[in-house]
Amino acid sequence: DTGVSQDPRHKITKRGQNVTFRCDPISEHNRLYWYRQTLGQGPEFLTYFQNEAQLEKSRLLSDRFSAERPKGSFSTLEIQRTEQGDSAMYLCASSSVPDSPPNYGYTFGSGTRLTVV
Amino acid sequence: GEDVEQSLFLSVREGDSSVINCTYTDSSSTYLYWYKQEPGAGLQLLTYIFSNMDMKQDQRLTVLLNKKDKHLSLRIADTQTGDSAIYFCAETSTSGTYKYIFGTGTRLKVLA
After folding, report:
1. Which of B73, B43, B44 is nearest to B61 (CA)?
2. Could you tell me how far CA B78 lies from the centroid of its own chain?
3. Which of A7, A64, A111, B29 could staple A89 via S-S, CB 3.0–4.6 A?
4. Is there a contact between A104 and B92 if contact means CB atoms under 8 Å apart?
């Protein structure tokens, strides 16, 4: 297992288009997280899955955003009708329950950089 | 609410020590973390500290925690050019999701 994989690495899209990103977590990890990182900021939590259930969504996740994790394996994050403000790095992370602290087994992917023009 | 703050930039000469500071607001945080992010790369966990500790040393890294002032620092001894990166402090939420609350990041530049 090579860690958390994200695809694509980069995406340039025109405003108003829809985009979809994919995250493949570490295979035995049952928790999956999406974060967004804008330029000059730290990552901000978007949403969290335990297996296939989406258990928490940030208020940052507007109605144009939807995330899924069918069968509790890979996850997709779709943004509809993209806006320039959606330009950011989208990071995925996975971890395993019942990993204990200190870092709950968190592993981050390298991210998908989205540019909306 | 939850908030984690850091200074934006730090510049040091190679071989000197670097000290990166962080303040946080959630007094119930159990663990606090330092992550490193290099250009084009994901986040790499450097070290962590449990909230009942006040210091932790891990090779060139020393973490100091002042829980009363909610202040966390990371000291890098003998800083090298390869240490140039963005450093984030983070705390985990207490909600059970174990999501991270990250600081704004400190860009460390090491001058040869």
Report:
1. B73
2. 17
3. A111
4. yes
A110-to-A22, A93, A116 alpha-carbon distances in Å: 12, 9, 19
3 state DSSP class of A32? strand
Adjacent-strand bridge partners of A34: A47, A92
Give the nearest partner residue to A56 out of B4, B97, B105, using CB atoms.
B97
| Amino acid symbol at B63 | V
pLDDT tens profile A68-89 = 999 889 999 999 999 999 999 9
Neighbours of B106 (CB within 10 A): 21
pLDDT band, residue A101 (cuts 50/70/90): low
What is the C-alpha separation between A40 and A66, in angstroms, rounded?
A: 25
For the stretch B58-96, pLDDT in tens is 999 999 999 889 999 999 999 999 999 999 999 886 567
B84 within 8 A of B16, measured Cβ to Cβ: no
Size of interface A-B (CB pairs under 8 A): 58
Q: Among candidates B86, B74, B91, which has minimal Cα distance to B33?
A: B91
Q: How many helices and strands (H and E) does chain B possess?
A: 0, 11
Q: Is the pLDDT reported for residue B21 higher than 90?
A: yes
How do beta strands B9-13 and B106-111 pair? parallel
Are A4 and A25 within 8 A, CB to CB?
yes
Residues on chain A touching B33 (C-beta within 8 angstroms): 102-103
Indicate the residue type of A58. S
- Tokens representing B92 are 């985990």
